Amino acid sequence: MTDILLVEDQVNPRKAFAFLLKKKGYNVDEAENGTIALDKLNSQFYDLVITDLKMNAVDGMEVLKQTKELHPNTEVILMTAYGTIDSGVKAMKMGAYDYITKPFNNDEFLILVRRALEKRQTMEEVRYLKEELYGKYKFENIIGNSAPMQEILKLVTKIAASDSTVLISGESGTGKELIARAIHANSSRKDKPMITVNCGSLPENLLESELFGHVRGSFTGAIKDKKGLFQEAHTGTIFLDEIGEITAQTQVRLLRCIQEREIRRLGDNRSSQVDVRIIAATNRDLEKLVQKGTFREDLFYRVNVIPIHLPPLRDRKEDIPVLVNHFLEKYMKKLNRDLPKISESAMQLLLNYHWPGNVRELENLIERVITLNAKSIIEPDDFYFNFSRLDNPVMSITKKIKGMTLEEMEKWLILDTLEKCSGNQKLASQKLGISTTTLWRKLGKYEIDVNRTKTF
Protein backbone atom coordinates (compact mmCIF):
# COMPACT_ATOMS: atom_id res chain seq x y z
CA MET A 1 0.00 0.00 0.00
CA THR A 2 1.17 3.54 -0.74
CA ASP A 3 2.29 5.44 2.38
CA ILE A 4 1.74 9.19 2.58
CA LEU A 5 2.86 11.55 5.34
CA LEU A 6 0.51 14.53 5.68
CA VAL A 7 1.98 17.50 7.55
CA GLU A 8 -0.51 20.27 8.46
CA ASP A 9 -0.67 22.33 11.67
CA GLN A 10 -4.38 23.14 11.33
CA VAL A 11 -6.59 20.33 12.55
CA ASN A 12 -9.67 20.70 10.33
CA PRO A 13 -7.81 21.00 6.99
CA ARG A 14 -5.51 18.11 8.00
CA LYS A 15 -8.45 15.83 8.82
CA ALA A 16 -10.22 16.82 5.60
CA PHE A 17 -7.12 16.11 3.44
CA ALA A 18 -6.51 12.82 5.25
CA PHE A 19 -10.11 11.70 4.70
CA LEU A 20 -9.87 12.57 1.01
CA LEU A 21 -6.65 10.56 0.58
CA LYS A 22 -7.83 7.56 2.60
CA LYS A 23 -11.01 7.46 0.50
CA LYS A 24 -8.76 6.90 -2.54
CA GLY A 25 -7.07 3.95 -0.83
CA TYR A 26 -3.87 5.61 0.38
CA ASN A 27 -2.36 4.83 3.77
CA VAL A 28 -2.09 8.25 5.48
CA ASP A 29 0.05 9.12 8.49
CA GLU A 30 -0.65 12.55 10.01
CA ALA A 31 1.79 15.00 11.62
CA GLU A 32 0.49 18.14 13.34
CA ASN A 33 3.74 20.07 12.92
CA GLY A 34 7.16 19.92 11.26
CA THR A 35 8.97 18.61 14.33
CA ILE A 36 6.72 15.55 14.57
CA ALA A 37 7.06 15.07 10.81
CA LEU A 38 10.87 14.92 11.08
CA ASP A 39 10.63 12.36 13.89
CA LYS A 40 8.41 10.20 11.69
CA LEU A 41 10.72 10.60 8.68
CA ASN A 42 13.66 9.42 10.78
CA SER A 43 11.91 6.18 11.66
CA GLN A 44 9.79 5.37 8.61
CA PHE A 45 9.82 5.54 4.81
CA TYR A 46 7.04 7.30 2.91
CA ASP A 47 6.28 7.26 -0.81
CA LEU A 48 4.99 10.84 -0.66
CA VAL A 49 5.15 13.74 1.80
CA ILE A 50 2.47 16.45 1.57
CA THR A 51 3.38 19.37 3.80
CA ASP A 52 2.10 22.82 4.56
CA LEU A 53 4.66 25.56 3.86
CA LYS A 54 4.01 28.01 6.71
CA MET A 55 4.39 26.31 10.12
CA ASN A 56 6.00 27.37 13.38
CA ALA A 57 9.44 26.15 14.42
CA VAL A 58 9.98 23.74 11.50
CA ASP A 59 8.40 24.94 8.26
CA GLY A 60 7.60 23.11 5.03
CA MET A 61 10.91 24.02 3.39
CA GLU A 62 12.81 22.33 6.22
CA VAL A 63 10.56 19.27 5.98
CA LEU A 64 11.32 19.18 2.24
CA LYS A 65 15.07 19.54 2.85
CA GLN A 66 15.18 16.81 5.50
CA THR A 67 12.98 14.48 3.45
CA LYS A 68 15.31 14.68 0.45
CA GLU A 69 18.36 14.11 2.63
CA LEU A 70 16.85 11.09 4.39
CA HIS A 71 14.87 9.61 1.48
CA PRO A 72 15.95 11.01 -1.91
CA ASN A 73 13.34 8.95 -3.78
CA THR A 74 10.39 10.23 -1.75
CA GLU A 75 8.31 12.83 -3.60
CA VAL A 76 7.21 16.02 -1.81
CA ILE A 77 4.24 18.32 -2.48
CA LEU A 78 4.02 21.66 -0.68
CA MET A 79 0.71 23.34 0.22
CA THR A 80 0.51 27.04 0.96
CA ALA A 81 -1.98 29.85 1.26
CA TYR A 82 0.88 32.27 0.66
CA GLY A 83 1.96 30.95 -2.67
CA THR A 84 4.40 33.03 -4.65
CA ILE A 85 6.44 32.26 -7.73
CA ASP A 86 9.62 32.67 -5.67
CA SER A 87 8.63 30.09 -3.05
CA GLY A 88 7.50 27.67 -5.76
CA VAL A 89 10.74 27.99 -7.71
CA LYS A 90 12.78 27.57 -4.53
CA ALA A 91 10.81 24.45 -3.58
CA MET A 92 11.29 22.93 -7.04
CA LYS A 93 15.03 23.62 -6.92
CA MET A 94 15.19 21.84 -3.57
CA GLY A 95 13.59 18.76 -5.11
CA ALA A 96 9.85 19.20 -4.56
CA TYR A 97 7.62 17.50 -7.10
CA ASP A 98 5.25 20.51 -7.15
CA TYR A 99 3.35 22.91 -4.93
CA ILE A 100 -0.33 23.81 -4.71
CA THR A 101 -1.99 26.95 -3.40
CA LYS A 102 -4.83 26.77 -0.88
CA PRO A 103 -7.75 26.80 -1.24
CA PHE A 104 -7.65 24.22 -4.01
CA ASN A 105 -10.06 21.96 -5.86
CA ASN A 106 -10.17 18.40 -4.44
CA ASP A 107 -9.91 16.83 -7.89
CA GLU A 108 -6.92 19.02 -8.73
CA PHE A 109 -5.26 17.97 -5.47
CA LEU A 110 -5.85 14.24 -6.09
CA ILE A 111 -4.55 14.48 -9.66
CA LEU A 112 -1.37 16.10 -8.36
CA VAL A 113 -0.96 13.36 -5.74
CA ARG A 114 -1.49 10.63 -8.35
CA ARG A 115 1.04 12.15 -10.73
CA ALA A 116 3.64 12.52 -7.98
CA LEU A 117 3.22 8.85 -7.04
CA GLU A 118 3.36 7.79 -10.69
CA LYS A 119 6.66 9.64 -11.04
CA ARG A 120 8.02 7.90 -7.96
CA GLN A 121 6.90 4.52 -9.31
CA THR A 122 8.55 5.22 -12.66
CA MET A 123 11.80 6.27 -11.00
CA GLU A 124 11.72 3.16 -8.84
CA GLU A 125 11.26 0.95 -11.91
CA VAL A 126 14.15 2.71 -13.67
CA ARG A 127 16.34 2.24 -10.59
CA TYR A 128 15.41 -1.45 -10.44
CA LEU A 129 16.15 -1.99 -14.13
CA LYS A 130 19.51 -0.25 -13.79
CA GLU A 131 20.42 -2.44 -10.83
CA GLU A 132 19.37 -5.51 -12.82
CA LEU A 133 21.44 -4.37 -15.79
CA TYR A 134 24.52 -3.50 -13.77
CA GLY A 135 24.08 -6.62 -11.69
CA LYS A 136 24.08 -8.74 -14.82
CA TYR A 137 27.39 -7.33 -15.95
CA LYS A 138 29.12 -6.76 -12.61
CA PHE A 139 32.54 -8.33 -12.18
CA GLU A 140 31.23 -11.27 -10.16
CA ASN A 141 29.53 -12.53 -13.34
CA ILE A 142 32.85 -12.86 -15.13
CA ILE A 143 33.02 -16.52 -14.20
CA GLY A 144 36.38 -18.25 -13.85
CA ASN A 145 38.77 -19.43 -11.16
CA SER A 146 41.67 -20.05 -13.53
CA ALA A 147 44.78 -17.88 -13.34
CA PRO A 148 44.18 -16.27 -16.78
CA MET A 149 40.61 -15.24 -15.88
CA GLN A 150 41.68 -13.88 -12.50
CA GLU A 151 44.33 -11.74 -14.22
CA ILE A 152 41.71 -10.49 -16.70
CA LEU A 153 39.36 -9.62 -13.83
CA LYS A 154 42.09 -7.60 -12.11
CA LEU A 155 42.83 -5.74 -15.34
CA VAL A 156 39.17 -5.01 -16.04
CA THR A 157 38.76 -3.69 -12.49
CA LYS A 158 41.68 -1.30 -13.00
CA ILE A 159 40.64 0.07 -16.39
CA ALA A 160 36.87 0.39 -15.92
CA ALA A 161 37.10 3.89 -14.42
CA SER A 162 39.32 5.24 -17.21
CA ASP A 163 38.35 6.41 -20.69
CA SER A 164 41.14 4.48 -22.42
CA THR A 165 40.35 2.58 -25.61
CA VAL A 166 40.23 -1.20 -25.10
CA LEU A 167 40.79 -4.01 -27.60
CA ILE A 168 39.34 -7.38 -26.55
CA SER A 169 40.54 -10.37 -28.57
CA GLY A 170 39.56 -14.01 -28.44
CA GLU A 171 37.74 -16.76 -30.28
CA SER A 172 33.99 -16.59 -30.85
CA GLY A 173 32.05 -17.50 -27.73
CA THR A 174 34.73 -16.58 -25.20
CA GLY A 175 32.70 -13.70 -23.75
CA LYS A 176 34.15 -10.57 -25.37
CA GLU A 177 30.89 -8.63 -25.23
CA LEU A 178 30.36 -9.62 -21.58
CA ILE A 179 33.75 -8.09 -20.73
CA ALA A 180 32.92 -4.96 -22.72
CA ARG A 181 29.60 -4.52 -20.93
CA ALA A 182 31.23 -5.12 -17.54
CA ILE A 183 33.74 -2.35 -18.29
CA HIS A 184 30.95 0.05 -19.23
CA ALA A 185 28.67 -0.92 -16.33
CA ASN A 186 31.44 -0.20 -13.84
CA SER A 187 32.62 3.05 -15.41
CA SER A 188 31.65 6.68 -14.81
CA ARG A 189 29.65 6.42 -18.07
CA LYS A 190 27.36 3.65 -16.80
CA ASP A 191 24.29 5.92 -16.78
CA LYS A 192 24.95 6.86 -20.41
CA PRO A 193 24.24 4.68 -23.46
CA MET A 194 26.37 1.75 -24.58
CA ILE A 195 25.91 1.24 -28.31
CA THR A 196 26.94 -2.08 -29.88
CA VAL A 197 27.62 -2.60 -33.58
CA ASN A 198 28.81 -5.79 -35.29
CA CYS A 199 31.20 -4.51 -37.93
CA GLY A 200 31.22 -7.82 -39.78
CA SER A 201 27.48 -8.05 -40.29
CA LEU A 202 27.00 -4.94 -42.44
CA PRO A 203 28.21 -4.08 -45.98
CA GLU A 204 30.72 -1.23 -46.27
CA ASN A 205 28.35 1.56 -47.36
CA LEU A 206 25.75 0.65 -44.76
CA LEU A 207 28.37 0.32 -41.99
CA GLU A 208 29.69 3.84 -42.63
CA SER A 209 26.17 5.22 -42.57
CA GLU A 210 25.43 3.33 -39.34
CA LEU A 211 28.61 4.51 -37.62
CA PHE A 212 28.79 8.11 -38.78
CA GLY A 213 25.28 8.91 -40.06
CA HIS A 214 24.31 10.60 -43.31
CA VAL A 215 22.46 13.62 -44.64
CA ARG A 216 19.47 13.50 -46.93
CA GLY A 217 20.40 12.83 -50.56
CA SER A 218 23.94 11.63 -49.79
CA PHE A 219 23.20 8.32 -51.55
CA THR A 220 20.28 6.48 -53.13
CA GLY A 221 17.76 5.73 -50.43
CA ALA A 222 18.94 8.49 -48.06
CA ILE A 223 15.54 10.16 -47.86
CA LYS A 224 16.24 11.98 -44.57
CA ASP A 225 19.06 12.93 -42.24
CA LYS A 226 20.26 10.16 -39.92
CA LYS A 227 22.38 10.30 -36.78
CA GLY A 228 25.24 7.81 -36.62
CA LEU A 229 25.92 5.40 -33.77
CA PHE A 230 28.86 7.51 -32.59
CA GLN A 231 26.44 10.40 -32.06
CA GLU A 232 23.96 8.06 -30.37
CA ALA A 233 26.73 6.95 -27.99
CA HIS A 234 27.76 10.54 -27.14
CA THR A 235 29.00 10.71 -23.51
CA GLY A 236 28.71 6.91 -23.34
CA THR A 237 30.48 3.90 -24.84
CA ILE A 238 30.53 2.38 -28.32
CA PHE A 239 31.41 -1.30 -28.69
CA LEU A 240 32.84 -2.14 -32.12
CA ASP A 241 32.54 -5.92 -32.36
CA GLU A 242 34.59 -7.72 -35.03
CA ILE A 243 36.58 -4.60 -35.87
CA GLY A 244 38.94 -6.69 -37.99
CA GLU A 245 36.23 -6.98 -40.66
CA ILE A 246 35.99 -3.28 -41.58
CA THR A 247 37.22 -2.16 -45.00
CA ALA A 248 40.12 0.18 -45.76
CA GLN A 249 37.83 3.18 -46.41
CA THR A 250 35.95 2.72 -43.13
CA GLN A 251 39.29 2.30 -41.34
CA VAL A 252 40.34 5.77 -42.52
CA ARG A 253 37.13 7.36 -41.25
CA LEU A 254 37.34 5.50 -37.96
CA LEU A 255 40.96 6.56 -37.46
CA ARG A 256 40.00 10.20 -37.95
CA CYS A 257 37.14 9.79 -35.48
CA ILE A 258 39.45 8.36 -32.82
CA GLN A 259 42.20 10.94 -33.40
CA GLU A 260 40.08 14.06 -33.67
CA ARG A 261 37.14 12.95 -31.50
CA GLU A 262 34.82 14.13 -34.23
CA ILE A 263 32.69 12.59 -36.97
CA ARG A 264 31.38 13.77 -40.31
CA ARG A 265 28.15 12.32 -41.64
CA LEU A 266 28.13 10.98 -45.20
CA GLY A 267 27.38 13.85 -47.56
CA ASP A 268 27.89 16.50 -44.88
CA ASN A 269 30.53 19.26 -45.06
CA ARG A 270 30.47 19.88 -41.32
CA SER A 271 32.02 17.88 -38.49
CA SER A 272 30.56 17.19 -35.06
CA GLN A 273 32.45 16.57 -31.82
CA VAL A 274 31.75 13.30 -30.00
CA ASP A 275 32.70 12.23 -26.50
CA VAL A 276 32.74 8.45 -26.69
CA ARG A 277 34.74 5.68 -25.07
CA ILE A 278 35.67 3.03 -27.62
CA ILE A 279 35.83 -0.68 -26.85
CA ALA A 280 36.66 -2.91 -29.81
CA ALA A 281 36.68 -6.68 -30.14
CA THR A 282 37.96 -9.18 -32.67
CA ASN A 283 38.33 -12.92 -33.14
CA ARG A 284 41.13 -12.34 -35.63
CA ASP A 285 44.84 -11.64 -35.13
CA LEU A 286 45.01 -7.92 -35.99
CA GLU A 287 48.81 -7.89 -35.94
CA LYS A 288 48.85 -10.47 -38.73
CA LEU A 289 46.29 -8.40 -40.64
CA VAL A 290 48.61 -5.40 -40.26
CA GLN A 291 51.51 -7.45 -41.67
CA LYS A 292 49.32 -8.48 -44.61
CA GLY A 293 48.37 -4.87 -45.22
CA THR A 294 44.62 -5.39 -44.74
CA PHE A 295 44.42 -3.49 -41.43
CA ARG A 296 45.98 -0.07 -40.94
CA GLU A 297 48.93 -0.08 -38.55
CA ASP A 298 48.09 3.41 -37.20
CA LEU A 299 44.50 2.34 -36.49
CA PHE A 300 45.75 -0.81 -34.76
CA TYR A 301 47.86 1.24 -32.35
CA ARG A 302 44.92 3.56 -31.71
CA VAL A 303 42.56 0.75 -30.69
CA ASN A 304 45.16 -1.43 -28.99
CA VAL A 305 45.78 0.96 -26.09
CA ILE A 306 44.71 -1.61 -23.48
CA PRO A 307 44.65 -5.14 -24.92
CA ILE A 308 42.67 -7.92 -23.24
CA HIS A 309 42.95 -11.44 -24.61
CA LEU A 310 40.34 -14.01 -23.60
CA PRO A 311 41.75 -17.55 -23.74
CA PRO A 312 39.61 -20.31 -25.28
CA LEU A 313 37.78 -22.60 -22.88
CA ARG A 314 39.99 -25.56 -23.81
CA ASP A 315 42.96 -23.65 -22.34
CA ARG A 316 41.25 -23.00 -18.99
CA LYS A 317 39.43 -26.22 -18.28
CA GLU A 318 39.57 -25.66 -14.54
CA ASP A 319 36.81 -23.10 -15.17
CA ILE A 320 34.45 -25.69 -16.66
CA PRO A 321 32.99 -27.01 -13.35
CA VAL A 322 32.22 -23.52 -12.02
CA LEU A 323 30.74 -22.48 -15.37
CA VAL A 324 28.57 -25.59 -15.45
CA ASN A 325 27.23 -24.87 -11.96
CA HIS A 326 26.63 -21.23 -12.89
CA PHE A 327 24.60 -22.16 -15.98
CA LEU A 328 22.71 -24.89 -14.14
CA GLU A 329 21.64 -22.38 -11.46
CA LYS A 330 20.75 -19.80 -14.11
CA TYR A 331 18.43 -22.02 -16.14
CA MET A 332 16.98 -24.03 -13.27
CA LYS A 333 15.96 -20.74 -11.68
CA LYS A 334 14.13 -19.82 -14.89
CA LEU A 335 12.37 -23.17 -14.93
CA ASN A 336 11.66 -23.00 -11.17
CA ARG A 337 13.05 -26.49 -10.64
CA ASP A 338 15.44 -28.02 -8.12
CA LEU A 339 19.10 -27.90 -9.06
CA PRO A 340 20.25 -31.25 -10.49
CA LYS A 341 23.58 -32.86 -9.74
CA ILE A 342 26.06 -33.72 -12.46
CA SER A 343 27.72 -37.12 -12.26
CA GLU A 344 31.48 -37.51 -12.14
CA SER A 345 31.53 -39.29 -15.50
CA ALA A 346 29.43 -36.52 -17.08
CA MET A 347 31.75 -33.84 -15.75
CA GLN A 348 34.76 -35.81 -17.01
CA LEU A 349 33.18 -35.90 -20.45
CA LEU A 350 32.81 -32.11 -20.41
CA LEU A 351 36.43 -31.72 -19.29
CA ASN A 352 37.64 -33.89 -22.19
CA TYR A 353 35.62 -32.04 -24.83
CA HIS A 354 37.45 -29.57 -27.12
CA TRP A 355 34.79 -26.78 -26.95
CA PRO A 356 35.21 -25.13 -30.37
CA GLY A 357 32.28 -22.83 -29.49
CA ASN A 358 33.82 -21.97 -26.10
CA VAL A 359 31.68 -20.69 -23.20
CA ARG A 360 28.71 -19.98 -25.47
CA GLU A 361 28.64 -23.61 -26.59
CA LEU A 362 28.85 -24.83 -23.00
CA GLU A 363 25.96 -22.59 -21.95
CA ASN A 364 23.83 -23.76 -24.90
CA LEU A 365 24.57 -27.39 -24.03
CA ILE A 366 23.54 -26.97 -20.39
CA GLU A 367 20.37 -25.12 -21.40
CA ARG A 368 19.45 -27.88 -23.82
CA VAL A 369 20.14 -30.67 -21.33
CA ILE A 370 17.98 -29.26 -18.54
CA THR A 371 15.21 -28.21 -20.93
CA LEU A 372 14.90 -31.73 -22.35
CA ASN A 373 15.43 -33.55 -19.03
CA ALA A 374 13.89 -33.29 -15.59
CA LYS A 375 16.35 -35.75 -14.03
CA SER A 376 17.95 -35.17 -10.64
CA ILE A 377 21.34 -36.35 -11.91
CA ILE A 378 22.85 -35.47 -15.29
CA GLU A 379 24.67 -38.38 -16.92
CA PRO A 380 26.92 -38.58 -20.02
CA ASP A 381 24.04 -39.89 -22.16
CA ASP A 382 22.24 -36.59 -21.66
CA PHE A 383 24.76 -34.58 -23.66
CA TYR A 384 24.66 -35.95 -27.22
CA PHE A 385 27.52 -34.03 -28.75
CA ASN A 386 30.16 -34.98 -31.27
CA PHE A 387 32.67 -37.36 -29.65
CA SER A 388 35.15 -36.66 -32.45
CA ARG A 389 35.79 -33.31 -30.73
CA LEU A 390 37.01 -34.92 -27.52
CA ASP A 391 40.67 -34.17 -26.75
CA ASN A 392 41.37 -37.89 -26.25
CA PRO A 393 38.45 -39.84 -27.78
CA VAL A 394 39.83 -43.33 -27.16
CA MET A 395 40.66 -42.69 -23.50
CA SER A 396 37.35 -40.92 -22.92
CA ILE A 397 35.26 -43.61 -24.59
CA THR A 398 37.11 -46.31 -22.65
CA LYS A 399 36.34 -44.47 -19.40
CA LYS A 400 32.76 -44.03 -20.50
CA ILE A 401 31.95 -47.70 -21.22
CA LYS A 402 33.89 -49.02 -18.22
CA GLY A 403 31.44 -50.62 -15.82
CA MET A 404 28.51 -50.50 -18.27
CA THR A 405 26.18 -53.44 -18.76
CA LEU A 406 25.81 -54.88 -22.27
CA GLU A 407 22.48 -53.06 -22.69
CA GLU A 408 24.02 -49.77 -21.55
CA MET A 409 26.90 -50.24 -23.99
CA GLU A 410 24.47 -51.04 -26.82
CA LYS A 411 22.40 -47.94 -26.06
CA TRP A 412 25.51 -45.78 -25.96
CA LEU A 413 26.82 -47.24 -29.25
CA ILE A 414 23.48 -46.54 -30.98
CA LEU A 415 23.43 -42.97 -29.64
CA ASP A 416 27.04 -42.35 -30.67
CA THR A 417 26.48 -43.73 -34.18
CA LEU A 418 23.29 -41.71 -34.67
CA GLU A 419 25.16 -38.60 -33.52
CA LYS A 420 27.94 -39.17 -36.06
CA CYS A 421 25.30 -39.73 -38.74
CA SER A 422 23.42 -36.54 -37.73
CA GLY A 423 20.34 -38.60 -36.89
CA ASN A 424 20.19 -40.40 -40.26
CA GLN A 425 18.72 -43.76 -39.24
CA LYS A 426 19.39 -45.52 -42.55
CA LEU A 427 23.08 -44.57 -42.51
CA ALA A 428 23.37 -45.42 -38.81
CA SER A 429 21.85 -48.87 -39.30
CA GLN A 430 24.36 -49.54 -42.10
CA LYS A 431 27.29 -48.54 -39.87
CA LEU A 432 25.92 -50.66 -37.03
CA GLY A 433 25.45 -53.63 -39.36
CA ILE A 434 21.76 -54.03 -38.56
CA SER A 435 18.53 -53.48 -40.50
CA THR A 436 16.54 -50.26 -40.12
CA THR A 437 13.71 -52.35 -38.63
CA THR A 438 16.04 -53.65 -35.92
CA LEU A 439 17.30 -50.13 -35.27
CA TRP A 440 13.73 -48.81 -34.91
CA ARG A 441 12.96 -51.60 -32.43
CA LYS A 442 16.03 -50.78 -30.34
CA LEU A 443 15.23 -47.06 -30.43
CA GLY A 444 11.87 -47.90 -28.90
CA LYS A 445 13.42 -50.29 -26.39
CA TYR A 446 15.87 -47.69 -25.11
CA GLU A 447 13.40 -44.79 -25.45
CA ILE A 448 15.78 -42.84 -27.68
CA ASP A 449 14.45 -39.64 -29.22
CA VAL A 450 16.12 -39.34 -32.64
CA ASN A 451 15.61 -35.58 -32.68
CA ARG A 452 17.98 -35.27 -29.74
CA THR A 453 20.80 -37.21 -31.40
CA LYS A 454 21.61 -34.60 -34.01
CA THR A 455 24.90 -32.73 -33.78
CA PHE A 456 24.85 -30.01 -31.09
How many beta-strand runs? 16
Radius of gyration of CA atoms, rounded to a whole number: 32 Å
**Gross geometry:** extended
CATH architecture of the largest domain: 3-Layer(aba) Sandwich
Please estimate the helix content.
40-55%
Which oligomeric state applies? single chain
Task: Give a written overview of the molecule.
The protein has 456 residues and is α/β, with parallel strands linked by helices. The protein has three domains: 3-132, Response regulator (Rossmann fold, 3-Layer(aba) Sandwich); 139-311, P-loop containing nucleotide triphosphate hydrolases (Rossmann fold, 3-Layer(aba) Sandwich), CATH 3.40.50.300; 315-452, Helicase, Ruva Protein, domain 3, CATH 1.10.8.60. 48% of the residues lie in helices and 13% in strands. It has 19 helices and 16 strands. It has a five-stranded parallel β-sheet with strand order 2-1-3-4-5, with helices on both faces. Helix 2 (34-43) runs parallel beside helix 3, helix 14 runs antiparallel to helix 16 and helix 18 (425-432) crosses helix 19.
